[in-house]
Design goal:
By secondary structure, this protein is α/β, with parallel strands linked by helices. The chain has twelve helices and ten strands. The longest helix has 28 residues. Keywords: DNA-binding, Transcription, Transcription regulation.
């Protein structure tokens, strides 16, 4: 008996397990349900154990099938990702991930500039507030808003972050925001990326914790929505200056107090330390560093694995 199982049969089995159906697996693989059934039967003969209980229009996995699935599925995923990354390297493709607010407010207005100067690169952008799984999602580079501490990643700080208060000029006049204490009668626009109103007020106002807790507010799960609400004179948002550059430049938003709360988190360019960057990802990394006037070179004596570009 060959030491390597029939790989085509393993693929048919994995698809059948995911769909709990030979027919749906067949649709995915572009073959007939009968062909999938034959491949699964071939694998059962090779393994010497039944994998499915076959009933009319239904297949039920056996306990052995569930155990086998848990072991082979990660391996098949690695094959898929390795193959995709090899193909993308040949075509100079780059998969970039970043938070939605950073993508919309900072990267999108500059994306055309990068592509014009690097026409041979095929860029794929995904946005998420969650920490990406580089291998599972096939991501080459990511901009993450975090502390910069992760031993698995090569990191480069693009911009340190601080939380600043912004509102429309009309709202500042209406609420008479001459000093931070005036926020007692304002509406605070909270967002999950910068949930720091209590700390900001404790530092810059004379309000007690009890009075701070009594201030009216609206909670948003995305910075984009909170910033838009501030533009529409619905309250005061606490966010990064980098996310409101356009609004401040066009005078849609103002910083009525001129103070920022330093944060332990910042915007970092990251990729797995164990993975080397392809040419396209390296060029994108260098371009991002240049936009922030950050050197891509590591300090003398640094681990070469920490090099981001």
């Amino acid at each position: 008996m060959p030491t390597i199982p029939p790989l085509k049969a393993v693929v048919a089995f994995e698809a059948s397990m995911r769909h709990s159906s030979f027919s749906l697996a067949a649709d995915e693989l572009g073959v007939t349900a009968g062909a999938v059934g034959q491949q699964v039967q071939k694998l059962e003969q090779w393994l010497g154990v039944p994998l499915f209980v076959r009933q009319t229009r239904q297949v039920t996995p056996t306990p052995e099938a569930r155990i086998y699935m848990a072991q082979v599925q990660p391996a098949l995923a690695e094959i898929v990702h390795a193959s995709r990354r090899m193909r993308e390297r040949r075509h100079n493709a780059v998969r970039l991930s970043m938070p939605p607010s950073f993508a919309a407010k900072w990267f999108a207005p500059r994306m055309a500039h990068f592509l014009q100067h690097h026409p041979g690169i095929s860029l794929s952008l995904s946005t998420s507030t969650a920490l990406v799984d580089f291998e599972l999602e096939g991501i080459d580079l990511a901009v993450r808003h975090f502390s910069g501490e992760d031993p698995r990643l090569a990191v480069r700080l693009l911009r340190a972050d601080e939380a600043r208060a912004y509102c429309s000029p009309a709202y500042a006049r209406k609420a008479k925001l001459g000093a931070p204490d005036a926020l007692l009668s304002a509406t605070l626009l909270h967002n999950s990326l910068h949930p720091h109103w209590a700390a900001w007020l404790a530092r810059y106002s004379g309000l007690t914790a009890r009075r701070i807790g009594s201030i009216a507010g609206i909670q948003f799960d995305q910075s984009l929505m909170a910033i838009d609400a501030a533009v529409r004179a619905q309250g005061v948002v606490l966010t990064s200056a980098i996310l409101v550059e356009e609004e401040v430049a066009s005078k849609l938003l103002v910083d009525p107090f001129g103070v920022g709360l330093p944060l332990p988190s910042g915007y970092y360019l990251v990729h797995p330390r164990a993975a080397s960057l392809n040419d396209g990802a390296r060029q994108l990394s260098q371009w991002l560093c240049a936009q922030f006037s950050v050197s891509c070179l590591q300090p003398s004596g640094a681990d070469p694995a920490d090099r981001v570009c």
